[in-house]
Sequence to fold (641 residues):
Amino acid sequence: MKAVIIGGGIAGLATGIYLRKNKHDVVVCERSNGTPVQGHAFLMHTEGKQILEEMRNGSELKLPGGKIETFSLRRPTGIEIKHLKLDHWKCIKRSDLTQFLYSLFPVQSIYYGRVFQRFLYEDGKAIAAVFENGDIEYGDVFIGADGSQSKVRQAIFGNVFYSPVTVKEIVGSVRLNDSIVDMPATFTKFQHGSKGLAFGIIPTAANEYVWFMQFNPEEADLDGNNPEELEKFCKDQLHGFPSVVTNVIEYNDFNTSYVWNTTDFDLLPSFHKNNIVLIGDAAHLALPFTSTGTTNALLDAKTIAECIAYHTNLEDAFNRYYKIRSTDVSKHIHAGRELNELFRYPQRLNDDEIPVPLIPPKPQQNTIKPLQVLYFTDPVCSTCWIIQPLLRKLQLEYGKYLEIKYCMGGLLPSWEGYNRGMIKQPSDAAKHWEDVCKQYEIPLDGDVWFEDPLPSSYPPSIAFKAAQMQDNDKAILFLRRIKEMLFLEKKNIIKWEYLEKAAFETGLDSARLRRDFDGQAQELFRADLELASDLSIRVFPTLIFSDGEKQLSRLAGYHPYERFESIILKLVPDARKESIIADPYRLFETFYSMTDKEFSMISNIPTDEARKQLMSLFEEGIIDRYESKNGTIWTKRLVEN
Fold:
């Protein structure tokens, strides 16, 4: 089969590469007289990067782009209102990605200077594409990859209705040294709080940045479009923004900047007509706030090639392609429109409500589970640390029956007048931790109580309540991380630097965490203390099992796993535990960190065998380890972008 691809941009080239891998004859027709490099740069997430890796197919070519590890949203005053870790994002210069794709495609199969004009038909199907320069290219299938103003789309579907331009962007790139802009691997955005105006800057390489200014033309618009007018407009609009912004504008060459009139169109009822099919922006167009355009182009390329390979009939292949891609594309179109409105009218949202479009919202889980569990714990409680293996095994085997709500119990208000059994002062806690470590084979280092003792467990407890206000699942990861810092790394987790670091590492917005820590989280913590008092909680941990209305059972302190299991089976007689797939690779996908005891208990193998397997994973470079005085914790190694 011969495929004629009209458009030699990212979508067209990627499709050509996939089709050639499937042994099809492919010709790419590009309207420009050389490699198209329009546009400065874009952001790409995991799916797009995986497709690029597939196309690279083991060649020595290096994937283009640099890691983007952090998102920072600030007001024009410089005050940070969001600070988040970004996993697996890259910023890639369009010219670099285009060159990467062109290096994977035979140059003799690319024809430049071909501006599409019309199709020649026979028996209702296209047999050739005709170009304005007089060239005619015959083929079996024709793929329109000619962008948002697609002439191929117009030829088969007529005109589409573009949405009105309600947001514009001015885009540029600039080279600056670190003394002027020092934001490595950070996507920084300054957003006005009362009008539609924002400025973003993203590093693409060492000392090289792409920037954009988004604005609402109803509030202020350009009088002209030449470099001088662009520069004046940017300086006028960004007056009063931080120096990093004004420096970027000052050093930018506005001869290479341009205005982007953002628009979209509704989802098409189909992406094809007979043997002509559309991909990329020719098939679907979303407003830029979702940062999905390039990744969608690559997904289209892979999907259309797979559908053609799977179906012998083109009609079936194209219908399948539409079915696979249209749902996500429709979501992106609607998400872009919603974000567009929120940008134009920012006063409708407070700081916490501002969405981060780079992070897809987590789907809501509305399943009601038969057992509700109130889990009273504390960040400095050693017994709450040593039951971690049991709780994790319960999660894997009986998680579908349990809805666990974490409550802070307030173990250590202060050391003044503190008297809890044998513990009356920090040195007593140090000895207790060492004893617990030996008895339960869980690493704890009591030296923190000599070197930098915590005066109270209240601040990290309040920080946990602040984390819960953002995301319950991430809050549990946050609690786990601060416990690791305390029990193994001897960090005084009352200090904000460690709480902020743990929030960032577990995907929370550390800027919001601080606001909530100083605000509503204090009230939520007091509510937990009142609940603990009402329920006469004296021992940590304490787990109270209920059916959502009445208390059914209570466990206080440490108990063997079988005791937890027997309570679940008594309260839910038909409960069936899930089989744990003890593949260590999969376990480290579920839990980013594990001690020897956790891995041993979850995998149901002796501790010595667990250590042996963990060391093997470490030597393979799959996991890292942290050695404390009294034991090891193993963590999943992050893959470089």
User: Anything to note?
Assistant: Residues 397 and 577 are 5 Å apart (CA to CA).
